[in-house]
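Example record for the data management plan.
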Amino acid sequence: MKPRATCSRRTPTCPPETELDSLTLQLRGHLALTIPVVEDLAERFPEDDVPRACAHSAVMAARVRLNREPGRTFPSRIAYAQRLARSVNALCDHYENLSSKQPAIIDPGTAAFLRLADHCLTCPTCQTRDEETGANANLPCPDAAQLYEPYRRAVQWPAAAPGRRLP
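Corresponding structural encoding:
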């Protein structure tokens, strides 16, 4: 069994106390943002699914670590930041695992824009250039006009964002 590496204030690899406090706050913020996302992804799976159970246990562990206070000594505060970092890493792994098994959900505005962009990039009429300036000639294209309408409506009246739970 190899000995654990300890960090004293004299070693060059230890961050200064102000950087450690800033890093700890950043890690807490990352956890506050990733916990509801991973939880929502896990809820889409059946209750008896193994990835769902693993993600839920990682979420619970992250919440426990988030609710604990860092120690008073410098080494205990470093250990606290390391535990937070491990939770962030675990939640990122669960996010990748859960999101790779589901189709990507794209909002209607983005889907309409992607259809319009795909058409405009491949349509000879939309790609016609002015001979003098080299700029786009902006020729009327009935297909582009037809694809632009759903995009305009989606951007004008966007769908309501689903409610998010707080950690």
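Summary line stored alongside the record: Residues 17-43 form the longest helix (27 residues).
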